[in-house]
Write a structure and sequence with these properties.
The protein is an alpha/beta fold and about 400 residues long. The chain folds into 3 domains: about 200 residues, Alpha-Beta Horseshoe (pyruvate-formate lyase- activating enzyme); about 120 residues, no CATH class; about 35 residues. It has 15 helices and 10 strands. Helix 14 links the parallel strand 8 and strand 9. This is GAK system CofD-like protein. GO terms for molecular function: LPPG:FO 2-phospho-L-lactate transferase activity. InterPro entries: CofD, CofD-like_dom_sf, CofD-rel_GAK. It holds the Pfam family CofD.
């Protein structure tokens, strides 16, 4: 196989490309995203109009929210972000499986008693619950089996209040598949007709840790985001992977060959908006990510998050770009050229010029576009962002 580089002039947005992808999303571009959390879900849902081939590498290192109880109970990777991205990409047409989608997005009551919730779970396992009963065979039996595995293994004190049924199914599948995420993610993708590819960026069961500028060490994603706990009082100096939550014990994760192959097939690589450290940089920590990105000659785009991010404090867009490049170069090599790692920084036209000072000197193109609407503010409007990304492919 011979690889050559072709240069072209791109219009943003490009009406021809947009119309072509809208008319046949099955042949749409392979846009690859490094992301986590829910920040990209609206964009992912919209992107299905343009392509059914998007690729989403999602961090499994979270330790809060809906994943926390399952991680503690089963010593497993975080699955909440994986489940939410699978649902964002699910086929919502009549050709999809709306009954399966309804079950996966259902949550137990936050106020019901544990006895009542356990009875509701048992009715799902038995197939008599309306949400399960509505699902056709053989999908119904597959789902019952995963829920049954979760139920049999769950600690007696596991709190079912507010639990996502999709998470419980994924957890049961993880246990059912010898503690491997990949097989159950693949199965769920088929069950809900995912129009794209969703993968955990690594298989390792690890947590996030951070060294702060003031010398403090913080272990656990839930303590870093500033959402479930007060924001950090000192900037993050170094983000790392950690074995557990009880003390600093740095660990390494390996970027799987299957994910490296996905990067090799991508038409565009996007460092997506969201929590800067715990949703984006966390995905770049496994060994091999930076090298795989540098080896692929396609447009590489950074779309910084909008609004306040407790993880970054007063960092400018330029500061974030420099930090992003620094983490990529840890793996790709300190002398790796910028253009092998990043080409474009896309910001809304309202972002002040001083936020991006110095980026052009690095050889980066800063694209200022109308991406935030009155209805979407302070976040990106999905349609213009999707159309910008597919126009660059």
């Amino acid at each position: 196989m011979t690889e050559i580089t072709i240069t072209r002039v791109a219009r943003l947005p490009d009406p021809f490309r947009i119309e072509r992808f809208l008319s046949n999303p099955k042949l749409g571009p392979r846009t690859l995203f490094f992301s986590g959390g829910s920040a990209l879900n609206g964009v992912a849902q919209c992107l299905k109009r343009y392509t059914h081939n998007s690729i989403h590498l999602v961090t499994p290192f979270d330790s809060g929210g809906s994943s926390q109880g399952l991680r503690i109970a089963f010593n497993m990777p975080a699955i909440g972000d994986l489940r939410s991205r699978l649902m964002a990409l699910a086929d919502e047409t009549v050709l999809g499986h709306p009954d399966v989608f309804r079950l996966f997005t259902h949550r137990f009551s936050k106020t019901a008693s544990q006895v009542d919730l356990a009875a509701e779970l048992e009715s799902m396992i038995a197939g008599t619950h309306p949400l399960v009963e509505a699902i056709e065979q053989p999908m119904r039996t597959l789902i019952q089996n995963q829920l049954g595995m979760f139920h049999a293994a769950r600690p007696i004190d596991f709190d079912l209040r507010g639990a996502s049924i999709g998470n419980l199914i994924l957890a049961g599948g993880y246990l059912n598949q010898n503690q491997q995420l990949e097989p159950i993610i693949f199965l769920v993708a088929k069950l809900v007709g995912v129009q794209g590819t969703v993968r955990a960026v690594a298989d390792d069961n690890l947590h996030l840790g951070a060294d702060l500028e003031d010398g403090e060490v913080v272990i656990g994603q839930h303590l870093l985001t500033g959402k479930e706990h007060p924001p950090l009082v000192s900037p993050i100096r170094n983000l790392f992977l950690n074995r557990g939550l009880t003390g600093k014990e740095p660990a390494e994760a390996v970027f799987p060959d299957r994910n490296r192959s996905l990067i090799q097939s991508a038409d565009l690589i996007c460092y997506a908006p969201g929590s800067f450290y715990t949703s984006l940089i966390a995905n770049l920590l496994p060994n091999g990510v930076g090298k795989a990105i540098a080896a692929r000659t396609v447009p590489k785009v950074y779309v910084p998050g909008t609004g306040q991010d407790p993880e970054t404090g007063t960092m400018s867009v330029a500061d974030k770009v420099q930090t992003l490049l620094a983490y990529l170069r840890r793996d790709a090599g300190s002398d790796c050229p910028v253009d092998r790692l990043l080409n474009f920084v896309i910001v809304d036209q309202a972002v002040p010029e001083k936020e991006t000072e110095g980026l052009q000197a690095l050889g980066l193109s800063v694209l200022r576009l109308d991406l935030v609407s009155k209805a979407s503010a302070p976040y990106y409007a999905p349609v213009p962002l999707c159309e910008t990304l597919v126009s660059l492919t």
